[in-house]
User: Fold this.
Amino acid sequence: MDPVSGHDRAADVLLAEGKVAAVGPNLEAPGADVFDATGLVVAPGFIDMHVHFREPGFEHAETIETGGRAAAAGGFTTVCCMPNTNPVNDNATVTRYIVERARHLSPVNVFPIGAITKGSTGEELAQIGAMREAGAVAISDDGRPVMNSRVMRRAMELAAGWNMVVIDHCEDLNLSAGGDMHEGCPSVRRGLRGIPSAAEDVMVARDILLAELTGAHYHVAHISTMRAVQMVGYARRRGIRVTCEVTPHHFALADEDSIPYDSNYKMKPPLRAREDVSTVLEGLVNGAIDVIATDHAPHTGSEKMQEFERCPFGVLGLETAIGVTMEYLVHTGQIDLMKMIELYTAGPARVLGLRRGRLETGWPGDVTVFDPGRSWTYDVNRTVSKSRNSPFHGRQFRGKPVAAVVGGRVVWPQD
Ligand SMILES: [Zn+2]
Assistant:
């Protein structure tokens, strides 16, 4: 299945020299290794444009190697890693370090995302051009917003010149301060301080205005509110270059679904109200949302075992993405398989300007193979990630990754 060409048929895929050499029925390739994908879906390699691999600086929680293995086990062949490491990826030296480490240690392609500002402190612009030349594919201060509108304007102007997308983590820190979950009935009942939807909405509104002013391509990370999705739809109808992504946990779970005080449900943005989840689903169906990205955010057990208010924000995502998406979007009839594949392949490739996400002759030999009907239970204790913080532990899904092929080589499962 290839969403760009619309091909949906039984065929052989021949990979040679790292590329797709041919797609068609009954291909002859004497001596080639054969992967029998009878009854399975063969798609372009899945891309996750939003992960945190914690290296350099927080290798106890994840590394480029373990994160790369988790990506492959989840059926991904390409990931983009956010710059909130230590040191922050705000200059070409760190960018090159990540690119080099990934080349040697990661089974999947890893493209770094550079910081917007030095140290992601939101004040002074980072070395955007130098990071671009070192291999950064986008800029973001993810984990933090760019609060200063003047700085964001300059970043957008510069990024437009370098033909890079600006990804913003949309959170007004003054509105969200002290909040641990979405501000609504469940937060009141649990006696927890809330993060209002407005904390996201005002930043999306501002960024859309700045994208219009500068002509830059602006991308909303992990969109989660009704108003934000509506505003993105409005901006696109007006011809403003805005795209956005949603995480599996934000379209699968609402605030009231979370287990009280369980830090495996604590993330930013928080799980929102049921009406927000419905609008996100509409956005996936009507095309307002371009991409599903996991925001894979590993934290170790000791970090996540503190009292709820002290726990860091973030949950794993790579190994459950296909299962959650099949279960909540495809088997429920919200979207078809082809649309799901697009949200994981051509969608992110288009946002980032990557020449990936197609299963056609001459394109990179990255392939994801999955079984849309296979039932399985996710056991976080058997994850290949270094961390265990998932809200989906013990959940049963129908739809499972079977293999990840990167540059013509089967990288998962390993034999
Ligand atoms: Zn974020």
Notes: The longest strand covers residues 367-377. The mean pLDDT is 97. The pocket of zinc ion is lined by residues 142-143, 169, 221-222, 268 (CB under 6 Å).
